[in-house]
Every structure is written in structure tokens, then in C-alpha cells.
Amino acid sequence: MSSTTITITTSLKILASIWKNPGAMEVGNPYQNLVAVMLSARTRDEQVLKLLPAFFKAFPNPEKLARATVAEISKKICSIGMFRQKAGNLKRMAEEVVRWQGERGGEVNEVEKRQGERGGEVIPDNMEELVALPGVGRKTASVLLVTSFGKPAIAVDTHVQRVTNRLGWVKTKTPEKTEGALLKKVPRQWHKTVNRVLVKHGRYICISKPRCWACPVREMCKYSRKNLVAPKNATKILEDIKRREAILESLRQKAI
Ligand code: SF4
Questions:
Q1: Spelled out in words, what is the top-level CATH class assigned to the domain 30-138?
Q2: What's the pTM value of the predicted model, to 2 decimals?
Q3: N or C, which terminus of the chain has less Cβ within 10 Å?
């Protein structure tokens, strides 16, 4: 094992021991997780989690969502940004899933068994078919593969992009390049952990002006402009982080 691989796995182990909660958009079955992740694009997780219970009451499966009008879907998600565009994407995604379900024929039992869901709630469980769904890019598909199907994948959002470059795991400018580099450098059994822990680390500690003074992996980080001096209100900041994460987890549990 190379020294970089050892550093990466050690850092991931440490971060995973701190950030234990599931990802904020892990809210239920594969259909529900897909809807949550699609809604979360450029939107605060808290806002998405708050609207999910009413959304899933109205549209409990792809079939109901496909039959709704864009206006009806928009009404349920109008508290978040880009809601009209997201409503259109959700409807088209659901129509495509219903079409896909209709075409599965003999595979139906196998897919249902793998996903542990009833037929009406199953969605494609591989990268190729997921990215073919309207409104679903590689990042969304990767999150789904990990959270819903237990498959190794690395979703790169702005947090993962920033943190992995600062840590020195990659030296990349785009999420696509970062994903490719991470897939090669991170041992396969750790792929599922990367997004979950780095999103939380990036949200609370490795923020734009990083809180290196509170960072549990600072000894292994290559960032040249570390912010190591704790501010006077450090205790309050750390308490606030715990409070915010507890609120997020409580909202996630209520959304299930
Ligand atoms: S030491 Fe600072 S820059 Fe490096 S990962 Fe930690 S918070 Fe981010």
C-alpha cells in the first residue's frame, strides 16, 4: 500500500468515526432517495428535508409522480430554488422510471429482491441506466448507488472537490477529474464513505475559511494556508456545529 493510500484511508477512518450520521438525503427507499437528491441540487438540505413528508404523501411512488402535472409538483416544492425546473425534471424522471418498470418483464423479481422494495418503488440500480433518467447526472447517480444499493461510487460535489484538493489527495479543477482520480486512489472498500464524511467535514470544518484548528486530520493535510489559530468563540462554534448536525439528523429521521 502506498503512503498516499495509507494517508487517505487513515483520514477517512478518523472522519468516519466523527461523522457517524447517514447522509442527509438518505431518507428511505431508492425512489425517495432519488427524489431527495434531485431536490437538493443547489438547495440547503434542511429546506429539502422539511418538504419531503408532504411530498411523499402526495407522490408515494414514481407512478403517482408521473401522473401529476408540473404545476401540482411545483406546488409541493415551491419553497426551494429552481422549483419549476426541478418539478419538470421529477415528472420526466418518474415517467421514464414507469416506462423502464414496464419494460423489465422477467427481471422484475430480481430487481425487487435486490432493492428490497415493492415493484412500484424500484428504480434502475446501475450507473448507465440512472444517468439516462432526465435530471440525473453522475453525481446524483453516484449518491444513489452508494446510499440505496450499497455499490461503490464516489459522488463529487463542491465540498468533496474543495476538501480533497486541500487535503492533497488530488490536484484537480473539475468534479469529473476529481471523481476519476479518487476512484483510482481511494481503496474500493472506502468509496462508499468518501462523499458522506467529506460533505459533513466540508460543511462544518473545512469551510471556505477552514477551521483547521478544529480539524482531526490536519496533521495529514497538505493545505499550505492552514488556519490553526482558534478564535475566541471556538467553543461556541463547536457547540453550534453539533447543534446543526443534530437538527439535520432529526429532520432526516422525520422525513423517512
Ligand atoms: S487541515 Fe484545514 S484545510 Fe486541511 S482538511 Fe482540515 S480544515 Fe481542511
A1: mainly alpha
A2: 0.92
A3: N
